[in-house]
Amino acid sequence: MAQAFSRQAVLLIKLGTIAISIFWVAAVLLWRWAISPAGGVNDAIAQPIRFSHKHHVGDDGLDCRYCHTSVEKAAFAGMPSTQICLSCHSQLFLDSPALAPLHDSAGTNRPIHWNRVHDLPDFVYFDHSIHVNKGVACVECHSRVDQMPLTRRTASLEMQWCLNCHRSTRQHIRPFSEVFLMQDQKPLSREEIRQLSGIYQLQSERRLTDCSTCHR
């Protein structure tokens, strides 16, 4: 019985199948790379000024809100302006070469371009103020920055990581007085969770895991 396809045709079919498989694998890898937040987990991001949260927060005790001024009222937490930095460094370490970009910014009236460590894709909506005012502490997402000489991301920021929190929201809240404290989360009692859930008027798990909550 004669073969339906010649050897050359069979070879072309095999090569075509392999090429299509390689294309789809490459497409999936490219897609995952495109939606992944900038920088890898535990990678320190280079900054125009070598800023240490360990020194400013851990040693000097600066509150998060001193530099991130809009964290309680806006989606974006805000980055420290030149004037905020100069509130200390107009007197301290004036001759330090490390602070040359700061004084250059003040002299040219050009803002410092800080590089984001936690950077979500554009199709993800995240609001700092909602989380903060619902009792989600800074350390839940940013970890113990007061122990970081160089700021790094400790969370994957992938959708499943966010959903794990949204599915167990009541396990990730604390009294508002503790939201900005740099300390590990202590387990809450059932009564504390009940009281805080009422105070914060938390949404249902179904609402918090709805696609439209984070994708608009």
Q: Helical residue percent?
A: 40-55%
User: What is the count of structural domains?
Assistant: 3
Label the structural class. mainly alpha
Nearest-integer average pLDDT: 87
Form type: flat
Q: Which residue ranges are poorly predicted, with pLDDT under 50 across at least 5 consecutive positions?
A: 33-37
Largest sheet: none
The SSE string, one letter per element, is HHHHHHHHHHH
The proportion of strand residues reads under 5%
For the record, give the distance between the C-alpha atoms at the N and C termini, rounded to a whole number.
61 Å
Please state the CA-atom Rg, rounded to the nearest Å: 24 Å
Number of distinct beta strands: 0
The helix count comes to 11
Keywords: Membrane, Transmembrane, Transmembrane helix
Pfam families: Cytochrome_C7
InterPro entries: CRIB_dom, Cyt_c7-like, Multihaem_cyt_sf
Protein name: Quinol:cytochrome c oxidoreductase pentaheme cytochrome subunit
Task: Report on the architecture of this protein.
- By secondary structure, the chain is mostly helical.
- The chain folds into 3 domains: 1-35; 53-79 and 117-214, no CATH class; 81-113, no CATH class.
- Helix content is 44%, strand content 0%.
- Helix 4 (82-89) packs across helix 5.
- The N and C termini lie far apart (61 Å).
- Mean pLDDT is 87; it is low at 33-37.
- Keywords: Membrane, Transmembrane, Transmembrane helix.
